Each structure stands twice: as structure tokens, then as C-alpha cells.
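Quick one, C-alpha cells below:
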């Protein structure tokens, strides 16, 4: 596996392989039912990350499904900013 581009690089300039490596480094696991969806679990919340056509969709589940929070992060954002937004949680 090759090294990731600098974290200031927008996601849309990453190869699919690099995006998958980055998600794995975050601790996310690919979901079996959909290879475009990844589950990220922390002690405080779970999140489903979806690699969509125009953006990265994040749905956090901090408790019950009634508490779910979601956002879409454009692929034009730097990887560091996207990672910070994801890890900030809901």
C-alpha cells in the first residue's frame, strides 16, 4: 500500500485505494452489504460513512436512532478538514 497524499490534499485528488486506506487508518470497517459504506465506532458514538457520487455522507448514531445526526462533506475539502469534522462527532 502506498503512502497517503498530504493531509492538505482534497479528497477528490485521492485514488479510491488511498481513500480506503485512509478510512482504515481512521478505524473504519467496510460494511459487507455495501462496499461504499464504512462503519466507524468510538466509545461515544458510531458513524456510517458513505462514499457517494458528489460527497462523503456521514451519519452519526450517538445513542438511539432518534438521535442520529448527518452531514455531507464535499470531496473538494482537504482530508484533514474532513477527518476533523468526522472525529468531532455529532
Amino acid at each position: 500500500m502506498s503512502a497517503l497524499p498530504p493531509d492538505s490534499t482534497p479528497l477528490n485528488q485521492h485514488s479510491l485505494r488511498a481513500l480506503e486506506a485512509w478510512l482504515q487508518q481512521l478505524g473504519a470497517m467496510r460494511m459487507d452489504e455495501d462496499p461504499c459504506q464504512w462503519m466507524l465506532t468510538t466509545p461515544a458514538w458510531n458513524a456510517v460513512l458513505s462514499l457517494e457520487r458528489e460527497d462523503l455522507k456521514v451519519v452519526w448514531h450517538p445513542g438511539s436512532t432518534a438521535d442520529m445526526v448527518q452531514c455531507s462533506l464535499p470531496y473538494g475539502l482537504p482530508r484533514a478538514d474532513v477527518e476533523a469534522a468526522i472525529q468531532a462527532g455529532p
